[in-house]
Write a structure and sequence with these properties.
This protein is mainly alpha-helical. It contains ten helices and no strands. α2 packs antiparallel against α3 and α7 packs across α8.
Length: 273
């Protein structure tokens, strides 16, 4: 919580870089394709009956774009939150640039996790819950250790192993907080603005409410995941194998981590100061 509250401005700004463009695109799409204000969708969930009015192709496009943009912003926030956790200066611009440089593996991990967890939930709910928890710190592992997507999933599972229930309840509490805050913000904004009588007004209000809610809750969720990652990494009961001699969490196989270091052991006589 401290990491988020003390750096909320930078983290909200990073979230806004992802949320605002997607919401503007959704707004334009709705205005161009919807003729009745009552048909303006409240969310872009593929298959949503209200969203069907803007066409399946439009829904899929906005959904995919939102997934990618959110993944990029989350990675940048993880970078910033990790710096804050380590009591280092937080630079939003530098965090975003760093995330852009790691764009390909970040997007690959987002797609891989979404597909695998969805399949797990479709097979049986319990496997979905298990893997959602086991892979909950995969993004911090990828961003901060310079891992590839599959390696990040394995790393996350190794860190969570033996502390699964602790991580699970942390995610449950975080999800409840995020849900309550999102509903409160949405309800307050709708109470102030109304729902709008025209398509443009209704779509604009929807975009405003969604944007404000998401730029508040996205940084919080990413910050919690980052702090959880660092706590798991430093837990003496962890069964995960350290990636290298440098602590905490630097990249393996010679790749550069989030702080510009490599996963190779430090040279003789290096003190770390």
């Amino acid at each position: 919580m401290r990491v988020y509250l003390q750096n909320a401005g930078a983290m909200v700004a990073l979230a806004a870089t992802a949320v605002i463009p997607v919401q503007l695109l959704a707004l334009v799409l709705i205005v161009l394709t919807v003729s009745n204000a009552n048909d303006v969708p409240t969310s872009y969930v593929v298959g949503n009956s209200a969203g069907a009015n803007v066409g399946l192709a439009g829904q899929v496009f906005v959904f995919v774009l939102s997934l990618f943009a959110t993944a990029l912003a989350t990675a940048a926030i993880v970078r910033a939150a990790s710096a804050a956790y380590r009591a280092e200066p937080v630079d939003a611009d530098e965090s975003l640039r760093f995330a852009v440089k790691r764009l390909a593996p970040i997007l690959s991990l987002a797609v891989l996790m979404s597909v695998l967890i969805a399949l797990a939930f479709l097979a049986l709910v319990v496997p979905g819950i298990y893997f959602f928890t086991a892979w909950s710190v995969a993004t911090p592992a990828l961003v901060l250790e310079g891992l590839r997507p599959v390696a990040a999933l394995r790393r996350s599972r190794a860190l969570v192993r033996g502390r699964w229930w602790r991580v699970y309840w942390t995610l449950v509490v975080t999800g409840l907080l995020v849900g309550v805050v999102g509903l409160m913000v949405s309800a307050a904004l709708f109470a102030i603005t109304g729902t709008g009588s025209s398509v443009t007004a209704a779509a604009s209000i929807r975009a405003l409410v969604t944007t404000v809610a998401e730029v508040m809750v996205l940084p919080f969720s990413a910050a919690i995941a980052t702090v959880l990652y660092h706590q798991l990494l430093g837990d003496p009961t962890s069964t995960a194998t350290p990636t290298c001699a440098i602590e905490p969490a630097v990249a393996a196989d010679g790749a550069h981590d989030a702080f510009g270091r490599t996963g190779e052991p430090p040279p003789p006589g290096w003190s770390g100061d």
